[in-house]
Protein 1
Amino acid sequence: MVREKYHRNLEALKINVLNMAETSLMMLKNANESLINLDKNLAQETIKMDEIIDEHEMTIDKCVSNLIALQQPMAGDMRLITSCLTMAIDLERLSDLACNMAWVTLEIDGENAEIETLLSKIFVMGNIAENMLKDTIIAFTSNDAELARKIAEEDDKLDKLFFENEKQFIEMMNKNNSIITNASHLLFVLRYLERIGDHICNICQSIVYVVTAERVKLN
């Protein structure tokens, strides 16, 4: 009876992490769409979702505390439990960055051809990050360490685009003073997306550790 409850609680922990990851994915998707379309209503909805993320994190913290304090998990389960806590931290930070992207949407004032060019480049980076997080959810649910390793390789694309776009954004700002304010906000978004990629890599590291007991550095 006690072991049955233990396994139910362990499964509940995994489900809570999965729910948190799916909420984070929705926030990232909405933040990216709100920015490319300058949809301030969608941006506000995205910001409100951060409260749901906080609730998920508190639930996961409670699950982890109960499992460790009351159930005395075995080594393999302990890897899963501690990794779920680590993943929740990365998901919370990732979601904060998506929230920051939505705040930038609210700050953008007006648009022109050059701003549309900048937004389109950000959208490409956002799509890469979205796909990375989607695949990370699959890797987590299927215990696929090999997929987790492949996802982390995609971060190189984000890093490359970050440096290329940062250089181009600054060049455009130097040529056209009228876009400096908006472009400055969008420079922050480049950094947010680059950091989101880093957090996804951290989650992939946790997945590899759960599955293989191997600590790897994928970022």
Protein 2
Amino acid sequence: MRRSLLYAGCLFLVAFISCRSSFEKIRTSSDPTLILKAADKYYDDKAYIKAQTLYEQILTSFRGQKEAEIIYFKYSYTHYYLNQFDLSSHLFKTFANTFINSDKKEEADFMSVYSLYKTSPGYRLDQSNTEKAIDGFQLFVNTYPNSKRVEECNKLIDECRAKIEFKSFEAGKLYYDMNNYQSCVTSLKNVLNDFPETKNAREIRFLICKSAYLLAEHSIFEKQKERYLEARQYIEDFIQRYPSGKTTSEIKDYNKKINAKLKSTDYDRYQNTSARN
């Protein structure tokens, strides 16, 4: 049994060394045609690291020749398949700008943006690449309005926008949890302005109303009236938009408290006294 395992191990080692030696012989050869043939074989076999290494060696060898286009195209894809998305985005863009008459230009333009989309991080992190991907997909749609990829681009745009919206929404909720009500109101109003079709509109407006009310409650006396009146505007708008529901009942309670506060407190008299002093 042990002898059989040892024998099998030796065969594997010999095969590995032989395979490695074959690749090294090709890699160190001075025959671009041989290297290209081997690179294509590795590419077809999905051995992208080896294919990438060999394509990279012959990029300049075939410059200006008909083979240059497909070499650069496959070389770009090796980076994509190896999850090297920053590089693949750059390389596909370079391909599209270099081989402007290529029948693969549309695909390269798409893959450049799609590679950028693949670098989009979780919503908690910086979304600069997500925003660039949105712009890139929109440019693709404008450039190729009849492309079969337009529908996919629009879906990806919606996905990216949803991520940015969620990040902004979570930031607003975080301000609320930290009792930073003024920043919460400002942040969530920006979400409504930036994403007017948001599915979270009711919850966002509810938090704006609640934060505006709590901001007034915790304000110094001379700022309370102004902030209560502002909170009431948000509340009245909310009730008009959403006349029923659990959150509406809570918002109506805030409205009653605001009206009672404004009625029972002589803010104008305080302001006049302060002005005379």
Protein 3
Amino acid sequence: MEIKIIDIPKITDPRGNLAVVEGDTIPFKMERIYYLYDVPSTSHRGGHAHKELRQLIIALSGSFDVVLDDGKEQKAITLNKPDKGLLIPTMVWRELENFSSGSVCMVVASMEFSEDDYIRDYSDFKKLASS
């Protein structure tokens, strides 16, 4: 599976730390940024794959698990540091779960929203992933 944890450049300072995502920090042009917050610990987010869109997911605060499936293998990754990001390529099913209280999940996307890019049915995803 071609997922990767990347280091987000940071500047440490006694007044507080600063993390920066810009230009060549990620291997795609940023077209959309959104964030999830106030997610109940028993809720699941995601539950889809993308045909063309790539994402960088960062836990800005708190922690959560990202369960990934490329059709061949599954992997769970805990995100809990605002200076680490999870790069997710195309055609990887993702579920986000186990949100801690006060967690904030930021997603940087390579495309603007397009419903046509989503695969929302897992059996459809499995068929596409195996072809």
Protein 4
Amino acid sequence: MMNRLIKLATSMMMLLVLSAGPAQASLLWKVSGNELTQPSYLFGTIHVICEDRFIMNDAIEDAFEQSETLVMELDISAPGTMQRLQALMVNEEGPYLDRYLSEEQLETIDAYFRENLGAGVAQLGGLKPMALNSMVMIGGLPCADTTSYEVYFMEQADEQEIPIVALEDVDFQMGLFDEIPLQEQVDWLWEMISDSETGEALMESMVQAYAEQDLDALMEIMMDDPQFNHYMEMFIDERNRNWVAPLREQMHESSAFIAVGAGHLPGDQGLVNLLREAGYEVEAIAQ
């Protein structure tokens, strides 16, 4: 039971980042045809990764340099976005963990927070479980130095004076987690902390699959828990379908480098297949 909950918790926190894999393992795809005057590129990201696992090569850089617009799920560089994100991470009703956990569980979480996050429940207990889960997962990465594809591409866009287009806003993204019962999210947090070794091992296996661009293996890991399917539609499939129209419009306006969580690329409802169904040629780029 505990291992199942840990798998679900870790998978849920990666939902905005990762998912299934297509027949051709690749993070970078070329989109052409269907009256496009120039190709666009689709790249699957992971929001946080150890620096020594960061994948960057000539193929990715060339695709970016050929693009005139950077398209992302969220533009965190937009004015007011980070302030809004910080505000949305706070539970509106204040501290809540004591309503869902025993005194002994609270003491365990408090000790874990102090040792690994530098602050206890008194300081962090007002944050939503999603924020706490993210902090725990990042803290569990086997490295001191981490990096982010989103930040990297935004910095490149700034240097090259390339405009950034966001597919969603921060209120929408954070609202996805608000659809999940608080009790369920607290349960995930507890299981991740009470058996942190299992959670860290699962996270490592996911990151390894990403680093190897083996999205089939990644899907196998995440779909091992049947409850994952309950949230797949909300976090991945529905959003993918909603993105197709604005992506089509953007690609016909200018060549775009589309950097979204790797989980949005594969599967029947993945962007690779949806764009093909919309009439485009979508080809994996060898690296």
